[in-house]
Fold this protein.
Amino acid sequence: MDILYSIFIDPFAQMIGAPDLLVQTLWDGLVGGMLYALIALGFVLIFKASGVFNFAQGIMVVFAGLTLVGLYEAGVPAFIALALAIAVMYGLAFAVERVVLRPLVNQPDIILFMATFGITYFLIGFGEFVFGGDPKVMITDDLYLPKGSFNVKMLGGIVNFQRLDIVAVVVASIMVAALAVFFSKTRIGRALRAVADSHSAALSVGISLEQIWVIVWFAAGLVALVTGIFWGARSNVSFALEVIALKALPVLILGGFTSIPGAIVGGLIIGVGEKLAEFYWGPLVGGGTDAWFAYVIALVFLLFRPQGLFGEKIIERV
Amino acid sequence: MRAPGGSQGGREAVAGDILLSVEDVSLSFGGVKAVSGVSFDIRKGEIRAIIGPNGAGKTSMLNVINGFYHPQQGRITFKGEARPRMRPHDAAHGGIARTFQNVALFRGMSALDNIMAGRTLKMNANFFWQMLRYGPAMREEVEHRHKVEEIIDFLKIQEIRRTPVGRLPYGLQKRVELGRALAMEPELLLLDEPMAGMNLEEKEDMSRYILDMNDYFGTTVALIEHDMGVVMDLSDRVVVLDHGIKIADGTPDEIKGNQAVIDAYLGVAH
């Protein structure tokens, strides 16, 4: 009985008893979730337009962050380094299309997937070769990102907000909104979706696959750069960040591989769920739930809604 | 029966200049010869049928014309200009549109968006404005939407414009696909079995759209079709392929009486 009590009753009693702690937990989860969502968004962009699951998205986040900090450490002013990092991401998109995607046109998806493993290991090696393997500190001050935190009195307690987190949430929201409109309402967006649906038909109306692929990889690169800046500011820019990218997988299963809103909502659910589980239920199993809880949520979803919350329904005519 | 140069709806254009010519084109995949030494031309404003038994190389021929395949030998001249190793993108730029044998639509998108996609090349607001969806990009969007609505009216698919095309019945999917090709305002329209799998009524509708298109917009049409009745009624001239070789070329009347064609279709005792 005690066990049942501590699983089903006690945590909720705590939530009601200390609502300020609950708000704090929710907020922390939300911020973490937003960053998961950004990584997932990078995956979705590329998956939508080319049907390729880009295993390299995680390392792209690290690589983008490293490039920014590395350039700065080499004496480039911060905002010029930022512009250069954007240019490097464009160069990467261009190179990936030329060297990897174009020769593999019309190959099965699994081959392209394996090719993104190749890109991953290339970027790890190349990044370490150029910038070294040591963790770097993100240049938050020079990019005028705020630091420190402030407290808000609410619900009979104090909730602590990091200024950086607020900026991260705002920037991410703007970027997501812009991408969503871009994808659904413009010519290039339509062309992206067209390529996702049928290569040959897209070619026949004069859409250039090469151009579209460069655009999506560049967009994914930009998302990676933003993610790299904010993750880097919270911890460090190091190759360990790549592991966090794996968290995007449950997010994608939740949200559906082809949905931008799905990536966001999925990210938030995973982020919040993870924090709640860790804070209220974690002590029961000795903590450390954040390593696996997200995958459990994903598993449950796979059982009941395999296409995800927002995934395109698979329409099959028979 | 439509005779070339006949009086129906101003068919004088039939005797127009050569729009596209195929000269001595050969295409093989490894050891399999899909097309060998085929030559024919398509004149401005005509409806040109390409027929032949299964595996005759008809679709390969269309794929060569719009740049999906590159022939190992021979030459394609479009609008007086030979384009070696033309890519599909260039073909579309040059004014060649097509439909596919097994409907190739953007299944997740609405009928409207599918047809709008056909206007990709006509729209050119740059990336910056596209990102903002403002200014030139928005004006352009509205202007092209008008054109697309005209096409939707023409094909009488008003009520399905918001439906994802994956849910539409086959006949309507073919119609949307035709709409997408029309949206490109092509000079040459390649139709790969536009009536395959349709019932009689749908076939009549589709035939009427093809004729109207040809009459009103002056679109030159090259079509592959298996229904001989349709072919004989619609086309001005017919080219017949068999095992990748051209065996006949002429008006529907000439083709009907051609012994080689009859043999190819019915088989002949050797």
